Here is the input.
Amino acid sequence: MLQFLEFSVIGVASGSMYVLAALGFVIIFKSTNIFNFAMGEMMMFGAYLFFAATVQLQLGWPLGIVLALAGSILTAIAIERGLLQPLLGQPVIVLVLVTLGVGSMLRGIAGLIWGPDIVQLPDFLPRAPIFIGDLLVPGKLAWGCLAVGIIATLFILYYRFSRAGIAIRATSSDQLTAEGMGINIRRIFTLTWAIGGVLAACSGIVVGSLNGITPTLGLVALNVLAVVMLGGMTSVGGVVIAGIFIGWVETLVGAYLGAAWQAFMPYLIVLLVMTFKPAGLFGEQQIERI
Amino acid sequence: MQRLFDKMVTRAPDGGSAAAGLAAARPAPAPRSTTLFQVGGWLLLAAALIAFPATGSGYLLFMATLVAINVIATAGLNITVGYAGLLSIGHSAFIGVGAYVSTLMMIHLGTPLIVNLVFGGLAAFLVGLVFGAPSLRIKGVYLAIATLAAQYSLYFVFQQWTPVTGGDRGLSVPGVNMFGLGDKGLYYFVVGLMVVLLIVARNLFRTRVGRAFIALRERDYAAEVLGINVVRYKLLAFALGAAYAGVAGSLLAVFLRIVNPDQFTLLASVFFLAAVVVGGQASILGSILGAAFMTLMPEILREVLEIFGPRGTADVAGILSPLREFIFGALIVGFLVFEPRGLAGLVDRLRAGGRKD
Here is the structure.
């Protein structure tokens, strides 16, 4: 029983790691309708930028985070302005294909610059384990979870109450009306991609500081898709809950059935959600059945 | 109604409608005037394909067979992505289904290749239905996610069902001696099958079913109004693409003499997507050009790296794999942004230019 509880706590904490990337995914999908398959790679790339700044350039972690976020924002804006805006109005499949191509490019660039081997990020999260009663929680995981919680809260507050956040929400509920109210839609698209970049980089740095990073980190992060499907494509609150839930299930499955099952689990959930409740648990009922 | 379909098929790619830009801008199937010149061209091509093994180079024969197999797989993906406008990012998993089914039949039942091929294709078709059914009922790009799930689920099955699939080590495939000609025989068989399947694909888009696919891609509401069963035809388009992949997989298994899970990864699926985009969506010629380009590109890349790159084979291999990923991605993005009709579009334009002179 104690073991089960311990795995559960670890699972919930590692599930929170998905939350940031999933939030970035949802915000981009909501406002631009683009399914961003490059999300995992943006996450991986942000983590590598942090690695380059802290380990390779020896700049210390506060400056490293600033540089990684700035680099990630620039990458996201470059993708949006350079590749996606020229294609606006094309069928969605084209835009999605572009993000898939961008993902492959980022993976290749990371492999070319930093090589295929796993690298460790500097320890900026305290290592000492934390005890809750008899339960042992690895220190990095607990602090990482806390960091995620803070960032996610900040994001949700920004999204709810700031002027820009309201403009984003207006755009996602009705583009035409938003435009009529004087919102510059194109600028909102760029802004959401920039925010997506920030969330991806934060998520990449936290995840990377737990287990190290490789160019294929982005593929692992495709699990985020499962989170997004389960939470409902459009629900900000839903993905938080779904992320934690999937992390929990995944860790338990990994602990009791083995790593291969763990990797497969999120996709099983995707298929189940699609079959039985395509809108996800918390999504708006926008799903159109044919 | 038929007339309207014709219009959809032949609508010129104006800048405004991107879908049309993606569409086959093939000339109207006007009364076909097969000139002597064209017949001569086809005969010449056939002669070249038949005479090709006479070059005697094992390497060239290997590459030619591989290109032909990839052409079949690419043509399948092109039916799904190019003609029907459905995004599948798990194509290599369906190739895997065909490869495993065909190999298992060969090992356990000893059936001839041609039977295995049919069952490999059929199995991939059915698996395609299973993964397509939940996602195609919903509007949007859910198929992309479902196929991604297929990619990982099927990989999981290939890797974990060790008693049947041999796990990570895979299965070694007994050789086949086609027409008593060994490797050359297999080449002839693959090329022949490729030609047949390409003709089938081409003619499909002159039938009711193929026109329905195109109508769906252009505007599914309109298609529904015209009496096309949207879900059924979307499913059919997707599963048909998977069936082509299954056939290609069966061929790949006997050709490489080994099947293992690592042949059927996401990278391989991206490879075929790149082939479709580079060659030209909704174009048979595009499938051929794209598959040939994508198959030969890494080879040329390796040669170039060996001449100009860092010394030592380990270094070359270390650079090659990320470089390939980068180039696959860059090709997809570059062609979608700058030349949405792919190499086939370039060829069309060159031809039109030639005619003007």
